[in-house]
Amino acid sequence: MIDELQLVEQLKSNTNKEQAFKVLITLYKERLYWHIRNIVKSHDDTDDVLQNTFIKVYQNIHNFKGESKLYSWLYRIATNESITFLNKNAKKLQISTEEVQNLAIANLTADTYFEGDDIQLKLQKAIATLPQKQQLVFNMKYFEDLKFKDMSEILETSEGALKASYHIAVKKIEAYLTKN
């Protein structure tokens, strides 16, 4: 098993870059897929955003300074690509990003890759009512079980602010689920 520092060195070198990139994809593809999927909802859109994420990583690995963990950097790129995707869709459809997310949730039942039941669908609707940052924090903690320390690196926000966002998000989701 290759360690993160070796992998970064190989990714930055011209001799092993292709092979190292394949290793990187193997290591992080599934985790990043589910992270992106929690944001954009649709399987096909997730695949597109994931591909864009890996392209950005490939093109910008030389900018990675090692000040955070490699996976934190990857998650930050995936998060930014997901938000960019939602914003572009909203602009193209001339609707808000909230409406884009509501459309995606409405289409979840038709998505052959969505394995959730009515409760999962209701939870997704509740999450969609949250502001974007609270959605990110809730998804990262609830679905991906990330530590606040890691989220802090990814979202470049203090742990305290993230804990507060998560707590508020949980309260709002509970209220939504109680009402609906």
Automatic annotation (TrEMBL):
Domain of life: Bacteria
Transmembrane segments: none
Alphabetic keyword roster: DNA-binding, Sigma factor, Transcription, Transcription regulation
GO terms, biological process: DNA-templated transcription initiation
GO molecular function, one term: sigma factor activity
Domain RNA polymerase sigma factor 70 region 4 type: 121-173
Pfam family, one: Sigma70_r2
Ranges for domain RNA polymerase sigma-70 region: 24-90
NCBIfam families registered for this protein in UniProt: sigma70-ECF (TIGR02937)
Protein family membership: Belongs to the sigma-70 factor family. ECF subfamily.
Protein name: RNA polymerase sigma factor
